[in-house]
Design brief:
The complex is a heterodimer of chains A (168) and B (497). Chain A is mostly helical. Chain A has 2 domains: 71 residues; 77 residues, no CATH class. In chain A, 88% of the residues lie in helices and 0% in strands. Chain A has 6 helices and no strands. In chain A, helix 3 crosses helix 4 and helix 4 packs antiparallel against helix 5. The N and C termini of chain A lie far apart (59 Å). Chain B is mainly alpha-helical and 497 residues long. Chain B has one domain. In chain B, 73% of the residues lie in helices and 1% in strands. Chain B has 20 helices and 2 strands. In chain B, helix 3 crosses helix 9, helix 4 packs across helix 5 and helix 6 packs parallel to helix 13. Chain B is globular. The chains are: A mainly alpha (168), B mainly alpha (497). The interface between A and B is large, with 65 and 58 residues.
Chain lengths: 168, 497
């Protein structure tokens, strides 16, 4: 029940997003030479068309399900509300991780990979299991070190490091 | 024959061997980790192969694939949780044997049948792929366009819960492929004046955004949603028992051979894959058995049937991939990406101009099974213990590899932004149950489709009937409609069951 509610929201957002994308590409294609714009125009029209099809298909499906759901008892509804509230608490963690990734990219450029990678690893560890993260903080040092060894020394990649900035 | 001999020398090059052993080990470990699987194992390793020669990189990826399919069976046997969906049929008899204290016998049965299945699939690849590749000489631009559409409809109709969502994902991928300089007219499209996008969206950051980044985020989500922090190893792991004897293997040869044939054929059919093969192999073995009631109670034959079938799929699925550029499943789609990264485009040229690399890869599909046998025979238990890594270590490590991996190819910070932004979009799409393989396939097949589409229209002076009047085009259109219909039927039966 709970999953279905989340999917309905997710589906609605995806229809809206894909339709917007389709129209946005049609708008952008107007400024491109006609022969180069033909293929994207065709694809964006198909994207909008399939989205409308999916939307119609899902709406029909939900209506038929709604009739069945009328018969659900009150207890189940209360249970769903509790699950719904619970769900929002864990939905936020993925987005915190994404924000941490953004900070990592900025840090990578400004202060080097070693320090930003340590910060990303350690904060993600804290986010998942703070007790163990502090006990095993050395893992947040080892993982970036191994990657530096493989990519910088093994594959000869130019990875900016804080130690290099520091040592000049 | 010359190329086959040459490929032998390439495989036995010490550098290639070391990379392949690493590939098999990583594959087994990733396969044993629930939620990882061959696709993610290969996606995470591709950045490491960028600076390596294709003669070494591609055999390593073949080894990862073989190892990952087998690795899924280890946790299915030891813990009762299939590491990959292709090992789902192994759980029934595998875990039952572990409970009886016969885990060693179950593991050794799995290793041997996987090896035989994998070798069988590899031999089929070497035999059939060059024959099928000759057909591609007959292809003109119209055929290439319809072929791309055919590949997309197959993967879209069979990779998700809804065909329409699969098709939308495929179109989204095709649209992503239009970013960059148009190769025919030279016009810049959807680049927003970012010079980093002139060559299009780079493939490695894209693969990582599609498969690795959303998986990292989902793992973090799962730790809160379901309280999963690690694999729960049962106490039965300590009771190992004896390995399977040669006599017992001899008794099962028919089952192993039957499953190997089933797995190879299912692999060759685009859109099917190891998930289906393991169940077909298992049910056919049960049907042919004189004692079908014993299946599911913990007999080696049940494991052999499922494992030989799922490992034979690898070789089979490479036949349409190398010849037509149609991947049979998500892992093959990533393999297609790896081929493109190394400058190899599926088709007849793979067997002429790039024959040395292609044959080395095909030989690696066979040889990686021998390596898998050696590594798995001694280290299966060790891999199960490593697979027990807690999520609070695994998730950040994976996240870091993903982000640094996307930086590794061109060394632009912009590429990490691509991974994070596209990865976030893909995470949201995964939540809304959109399949990821059609997006990758759309990006890969997009340029082929567009070139074919525009050149055909130029040849026919704008007449669209060119796509419907050529015999090969017509066959592929019929096959596309059939694949959409069968996908619809399959989804319907899935929902009703």
């Amino acid at each position: 029940m709970m999953r279905k509610q989340v999917n309905v929201t997710g589906n609605l957002i995806s229809y809206f997003a894909f339709c917007c994308l389709g129209f946005f590409i049609i708008y952008l294609s107007s400024s491109i030479r006609s022969e180069s714009a033909l293929f994207p125009l065709l694809l964006s029209s198909l994207l909008i068309l399939f989205n409308i099809g999916l939307m119609a298909n899902d709406i029909l499906g939900w209506f038929s399900k709604k009739n069945k759901e009328k018969y659900l008892n009150k207890k189940k509804k209360i249970g769903d509300i509790i699950t719904l509230n619970k769900s929002f608490s864990y939905e936020i963690y993925p987005f915190i991780t994404i924000v941490l990734c953004i900070f990592f990219i900025i840090g990578f450029e400004k202060i080097g990979f070693d320090l930003s990678a340590f910060m990303l690893t350690f904060t993600t560890m804290i986010l998942i299991n703070s007790k163990e993260a502090f006990r095993k903080f050395y893992i947040a040092i080892i993982i970036p070190l191994v990657l530096i060894l493989v990519f910088k020394i093994g594959l000869n990649l130019r990875i900016p490091l804080f130690i290099e900035f520091f040592l000049g | 024959m010359n190329y086959v001999l040459q490929s032998f020398f390439n495989i036995f090059n010490p550098g290639t061997l070391i990379f392949m052993i690493f590939g098999v080990s990583w594959g087994i470990l990733a396969g044993a980790l629930p939620g990882f699987g061959a696709t993610l194992a290969m996606a995470l390793l591709i950045p490491f192969t960028f600076g390596v020669e294709p003669n070494i990189a591609l055999p390593m990826l073949a080894a990862v694939y073989a190892g990952a399919i087998y690795g899924g069976g280890i946790t299915a046997i030891m813990v009762g949780i299939p590491g990959t969906s292709s090992a789902a049929a192994t759980v029934a008899d595998g875990f039952a044997m572990t409970r009886k204290g016969e885990s060693q016998k179950a593991l050794s049965t799995s290793i041997i049948s996987s090896t035989i299945g994998g070798i069988f699939g590899g031999l089929a690849l070497i035999f059939f792929a060059p024959l099928l590749a000759k057909i591609t000489i007959l292809f003109g631009s119209a055929e290439y366009f319809i072929l791309a559409i055919f590949g997309l409809t197959i993967i879209a109709s069979l990779s998700g819960s809804s065909i329409l969502k699969g098709l939308i994902a495929g179109i989204f991928g095709l649209l992503l492929s239009t970013v960059g300089i148009d190769v025919i007219a030279g016009a810049s499209r959807f680049t927003f004046n970012q010079m980093y996008l002139y060559d299009g969206i780079p493939l490695i950051p894209l693969i990582l955004a599609l498969f690795a980044f959303p998986r990292c985020i989902i793992m973090i989500r799962e730790t809160f949603q379901e309280g999963i922090h690690t694999l729960n190893l049962s106490k039965e792991i300590h009771k190992i028992g004896k390995s399977i004897s040669l006599n017992e293997i001899k008794k099962m040869w028919k089952t192993i051979l039957r499953s190997s044939i089933i797995g190879t054929i299912i692999g060759i059919i685009p859109g099917a894959g190891a998930n289906i093969a393991c169940w077909v192999g298992y049910s056919e073995a049960k049907r042919a058995s004189k004692t079908p009631e014993k299946f599911g109670t913990g007999i080696p034959e049940g494991i052999a049937a499922a494992e030989a079938a799922n490992n034979a799929v690898q070789g089979g699925s490479m036949v349409p991939l190398l010849t037509l550029g149609i991947p049979g499943n998500a892992a093959s789609a990533v393999m297609l990406g790896a081929l493109m990264i190394h400058g190899l485009i599926p088709g007849f040229e793979l067997f002429t101009k790039y024959a040395s690399v292609t044959y080395t890869y095909m030989m690696a599909v066979i040889f990686s099974n021998f390596l898998m046998l050696a590594v798995a025979w001694y280290a299966s238990r060790f891999f199960v213990k490593i697979a027990n890594i807690p999520y609070y270590i695994l998730s950040p490590a994976m996240l870091l590899i993903t982000l640094l991996g996307s930086f590794s190819t061109r060394q632009y910070y912009f590429d990490i932004w691509i991974t994070v932004i596209l990865g976030t979009v893909c995470y949201l799409l995964t939540l809304a149950k959109y399949p990821m393989p059609p997006i990758l396939l759309g990006v890969i097949l997009g340029p082929i489709a567009e070139k074919g589409f525009r050149r055909s229209l130029m040849i026919s002076h704008g007449d669209w009937s060119i796509f419907f009047t050529r015999p090969i085009c017509l066959i592929m259109i019929i096959l596309s409609i059939f694949s959409l219909y069968s996908g619809y039927k399959m989804n319907k039966s899935k929902r009703s069951s």
